[in-house]
Amino acid sequence: MSYQEQTQQSSGTGPVDEKNATKDVRATIEGLPECREFFDLARRSGADKHFRRPGYITVFAPNDEAMQKAGTPSDAGAFVLRHVALGGKTEADLRLMQDLPTLAGVPLKVTKEDGALRIGNARLVTTDIPATNGFVHIVDEVL
Asked: Are the beta carbons of 61 and 48 closer than 8 angstroms?
């Protein structure tokens, strides 16, 4: 039983929603059916090791539709690292930023238009998916 489950049971708030069970970023992305292609690419390239690195990270995981539109990248490892930023950034944190450095060394522009938040060209589709070592946001374009 995880710490989250023990805490919720002992405080009387009821059972944990399995979708929100405490997992690291790697296990969280692996459990997202809409991001299967991104996870498989990260795993095959070995870049998924960064999803378990010490400290907090934020991953912008492209959905399968975005991955299909983009095609197969020539350097899968670098491709994955363009979608990973140091520090656990929630949507609220991102709204206060203008640039976000990635593990690939390429900063991403953070913009807001008509209330929608964009990272590079990508719109955040699902935000603030918690993990023990950061957050995952699902995006509709590759970065």
From this structure: no
